[in-house]
Amino acid sequence: MEAAKLTYSFVEGETCLRADEILYIETNRHKNIFHTTRGTYSLYRKLGEIETDLQGLGFLRAHQSFLVNMRYIEKISSYVLKLTTGQEISVPKSRYPQVKSRFQEFREKSLWAEGPAREKEGKE
Fold this sequence. Notes:
Blueprint: E1 5-10, E2 13-18, E3 22-28, E4 31-36, E5 39-43, H1 47-53, E6 59-63, E7 66-69, E8 73-77, E9 80-83, E10 88-90, H2 96-114, H3 116-123
Antiparallel strand pairs: 1-2, 3-4, 3-7, 4-5, 6-7, 8-9, 9-10
């Protein structure tokens, strides 16, 4: 199954990204910074609107300023999301149960859908 493709008019120019290329998106002073496997891109748009674009594609609102691709979450513990890149993102106490639950549901669906290949990937 091919990943969803999204086209945005970034500050750097119009770019088409596959959803699975986006690691996470952070908001900083009204600008959203897309951290991707190809580099970073900036966009002036509300994070809530971007979240709507990415609905159903495995993204999680971990914090008021962070939208994270769950494929790149290594683990969640002690109110911190650790990404496979080593990046750590704080999760507010009020949001932590929901974030943890959504990530667990995502992992269960992913393991079921992808089988042993996903299990090995997660242990590396």
